Amino acid sequence: MAARTSALRALLDSGTFLHMPAVYDPLGARLVAAAGFEAAYVGGYVSGASRAVSEPLITMTEQVEIAGLAAAAVPIPFVADAGAGFGDPLHTMRTVREFARAGIAGIHIEDQLYPKRAHYHKYQVHGVPMEEFALKIRYACRARDETDRDFVIIARTDTCREHGLEEAVPRLNRAAEEGADLGLLFPRNAEEAERAVRECRLPLVYVMSRGNRDGRPIFPISELKRMGYVACIDAQVMLLPAFEAQRRMLTELRETGQFTGMDEAGFRTARKAVEDIIGLEDFYRIEEETVEGR
Predict the structure, then answer these.
(1) CA 181 and chain centroid, separation
(2) Confidence grade of residue 279 (pLDDT, cut at 50, 70, 90)
(3) Of 2, 9, 4, residue with least CA distance to 182
(4) Measured by CB atoms within 10 angstroms of the end CB, which terminus of the chain is less buried, N or C?
(5) Does residue 1 carry a pLDDT above 70?
């Protein structure tokens, strides 16, 4: 899958800002690609939710499968959440190889303890010592270089949430020394978001965590570009609107036996759009040329 990794590298090298919505299935991936996004993302939060469990309970094989199926549905490159590498440096090396084999173009690896705890979602930071994190990034980069040098390693620190940039920036700068390609942290306010870009020696990815409850800012993409971020992960933008729309629909359907949010013409239009995005007309043509044409 070197073409995917090369494509991601080319986008980054060209200065293309990558706004990456987080998807969790192939249909969502098709929608993102059809909308014109240059790259997409499979996050731990949406993967965990799609399995009706917490992100920390997702295994490496489950996350690779979810990301690989989404990536296989589209030609654009994918970045995936690889948690804490799913173990120590040896496990992290295998994690890199498995994501690369599945057609993923890059992953981020964080400095949380493993196994990750559900309290992570309460913004409880369980950061490992910096040297332990650096060692994991070093061996992740070794696996990258042995597998596909264009595969992108993003070093992620969660420590900014609790300890600020004074703790987070040195971790990313150390990760830069170990060979990481990009960095990711979680600024708590606009001032930290501005400072992070200036103080980190890695190009930074911003995480747009819509619906967060710790006050982390949601910026317009134009503002992130102005500050100097090279990419944005839009972590819940696909999951939450879809969840809310379906929840409301099912409530009405159960209470009234009807759904008034879309008329029959709208259903027909949407159904045709789904069939078009999965390529149903192409399937018809192939069957007409083969089994249906006999």
Answers:
(1) 16
(2) very high
(3) 9
(4) C
(5) no
Query: In whole numbers, what is the pLDDT of the chain averaged over residues?
Result: 96
DSSP alpha helix (H) spans, 200-263 = 221-227, 239-256
CA–CA distances in Å: residue 202 to residues 21, 100, 177, 228: 22, 22, 10, 11
pLDDT in tens, 9-52: 999 999 999 999 999 999 999 999 999 999 999 999 999 999 99
Number of domains in the chain: 2
Please name every residue paired with 205 in a beta bridge, in sequence order, or none if there are none: 184, 231
CA distances in angstroms from 95 to 55, 147, 275, listed in the order given: 16, 11, 35
CA gap 190, 215 in Å, rounded: 11
DSSP H/E element including 65: helix 60-72
Boundaries of domain holding 48: 2-242
Residue entry with tokens 């309290």: 119
225 and 271 assigned to the same domain: no
Question: What are residue 253's DSSP bridge partners?
Answer: none
Q: Mark whether 138 and 283 lie in a shared domain.
A: no
Query: pTM value?
Result: 0.95
- Do 274 and 193 fall within a single domain? no
pLDDT tens for each residue of 219-246: 999 999 999 999 999 999 999 999 999 9
Token pair in block for residue 177: 């020394």
Judgement on whether residues 190 and 47 belong to the same structural domain of the protein: yes
